[in-house]
Amino acid sequence: MNSPQDNLxxxxxxxxxxxxxxxxxxxxxxxxxxxxxxxLRGAFVRQRDRFETLSVQAPEVYADLSKNLxxxxxxxxxxxxARECGIQERRNAMFDGHAINVTEGRSVLHTALRAPxxxxxxxxxxxxELDAMLAYAETVRDTAASGIRHVVNIGIGGSDLGxxxxxxxxxxxxxxxxxxxxxxxxxGHDIGPVLRGLDPQETLFVIASKTFTTQETMANAHAAKDWxxxxxxxxxxxxxxxxxxxxxxxxxxxxxxxxGFWDWVGGRYSLWSAIGLPIALAIxxxxxxxxxxxxxxxxxxxxxxxAAQNLPLLLGLLDVWYRNFHGFTSRSxxxxxxxxxxxPAYLQQLEMESNGKCVDxxxxxxxxxxxxxxxxxxxxxxxxxxxxxxxxxxxxxxxEFILVKTPSHSLPDLHAKLLANGLAQSxxxxxxxxxxxxLNEKAPTAARDLDALTxxxxxxxxxxxxxxxxxxxxxxxxxxxxxxxxxxxxxxxxGALWGINSFDQWGVELGKALCVDLLPRLATGGDLxxxxxxxxxxxxxLRSA
Length: 545
Ligand code: F6P
Description:
The protein is α/β, with parallel strands linked by helices. About 50% of the residues lie in helices and about 10% in strands. The chain has helices spanning about 5-15, 20-35, 40-45, 50-55, 70-85, 85-95, 125-140, 145, 160-170, 190-195, 215-230, 235-240, 245-255, 275-305, 310-325, 345-355, 385-390, 415-430, 435-440, 450-460, 475-500, 510-520, 535-540, and strands at about 55-60, 60-65, 150-155, 180-185, 205-210, 240-245, 255-260, 330-335, 375, 400-405, 465-475. It is globular and about 75 Å long. The structure holds 6-O-phosphono-beta-D-fructofuranose (F6P). 6-O-phosphono-beta-D-fructofuranose binds near residues 156, 214 and 268.
């Protein structure tokens, strides 16, 4: 007899994939009649309450969706798509700890890491480990007693990008006596400059690896240990700490202080676990708890808000609308806050490792596109680089602006300029400029002998380019927690609509295996048998002798 868990998983497996629903077909037809030629400027004229109707207040995050290529009917059909795909049931299965990561037979419970004590799955285990990790962080933060001045996190992917993104984002909360360094690449040019100038007795190395087998992290951890020994470091137990699910491997490495987590925490969803130790060291226990609380508030919103007001769901639906109906292949993220400079890199792993798949959960090839390319830079820097392409390039690329109302600095003048820039870019993308308008403008830097009409064509903008604007009142531990959780759930929503398993990453395996094969071949005299001519030729060119 099947257990209730098996029954639920069977029901979920039987839920239709997005392209097998009535709503999908209705959306296809609607796109042909109203989507392809949709004009944002006209929509604002026709729909007087467009801004009010298409803005959502989620915990800590306000979102203006009104500059997207959406009409009321599109939205209704997308919501119908969510219903037909059983998003609610799939979401509940995740929160309740069912093994929705079907290819690895695992639950997906990063939400349990931020549930208050006594709530959520595995609460006792979660809070025991959290309390221990935070208590340890406080002992290190007592720098007079600990003597620690530098923290070096050695990890890669999910064991690096979260802390590396959050620590600078929360700079205003960071312990002034501690300096943070992040080493990820298996390239001496990464760890080398970090170690230069450090004093082993003032340094704490955090070896962060869920598996404790990742080649890059293990190589860098050994390099750090060798450097520590060679430079007179003593008391490894005080200067090396591990965050991992593989406590035995950490012990074999010689690390005795270890904070653990569980296989139901995916690497790219792990900053809320012991992997967040550098964050806790930077901002302290109270602020780390506020980060968790912000994420939990977004979890509740995703679990409870009605679909039409559910921000992660709406963003996931927009992703599907743009990717599968408009055919847009990328999305740009522009955080107008320098502290969020690593957010695009963090989101690249979160979104593209989760949803960059070409088969559905049952292994069937997908006949439609999945994860868009996610990329970006903080504003205003991006404006002076690739925004040219966003405004006048041949591809339409939806942009996500992230604005923060109140800065964490008190320098005069700068913040209003920053905000005005962000708003102007989203306005320009939407408004565009016709050749007729350009014709009436002066262009003092234009070539004198160029005829006016040709010049106007170069100076016109198609406009009607979509963007979303997210606003945080301030970038705090709580609001950042909510923002990250918003993106996590948006990825869940689009992945669930596409019918894929967003929680495995088999696509990283082949390259890893081939690397193991190639490493000995690269050595002088190494065997090149069986290699393709390109790889063999490149190896010969790269060999030192
Ligand atoms: O190679 C991909 C990956 O497995 C990511 O999913 C993960 O975040 C990263 O490597 C690091 O893995 P680990 O934490 O086990 O070292």
